Amino acid sequence: MKTYLFDFDGTLVDSMPTYGGMMLRILDEEHATYGEDILKIITPLGYALTAEYFIEHCGVQKPREALVARMTEIAKEAYATRIPAKPHVPEVLRALKQRGCSLNVLTASPHTMLDPCLKRLGIFDLFDHVWSCEDFGTGKSDPAIYRAAAKRMGADVKDVIFLDDNYNADKTAKEAGMTVYGVYDESSAEYATEMKALCDRYICDFNELI
Predict the structure, then answer these.
(1) How many CA atoms lie within 13 A of 139 on its CB side?
(2) Is the pLDDT score of 1 beyond 90?
(3) Taking the model in full, what pTM does it have?
(4) How crowded is the C-beta side of 208, counted as CA atoms within 13 Å?
């Protein structure tokens, strides 16, 4: 039996164009300044910590709560109605579940986006735990969140296979002691070489898991 901990955006679902576009739209609305690596930095943070990053590092003047509300407003409809699963994800998850594997989710996205999307795709009930960073009070840039997730799953951290398309999240999970599989996504393709060097394994298609 294996214990898997999956990222959501860019790993289970093809949402990164929507997610990244939303964040850049908000920054542009606020006439903020940001670098080319902004999406690499903010993707593991979650909405609240991303809002704080915008305020502290990008010159955004709005309160955190107002920024989070704007993110939620833009994203909610897309997650509920049209963001698709990535290729082969549903069938591979079902095959792993039939083999007795423990399947779990840890994502920076809030439950208001996460849960309706997984339910619409018919895969929510395959998971033993579906967690947002908000359930832990910290983000995926903090090694403690991975150790806390392992504890909640009743697993040794080294026995958990973590899958994410984001280099920073993979790096932090690796620092926390997890086995890490990098996942290809077009949004992070430029970091593929770095991810292959860092991770225990790198997959381009979910079929590779079976």
Answers:
(1) 18
(2) no
(3) 0.84
(4) 11
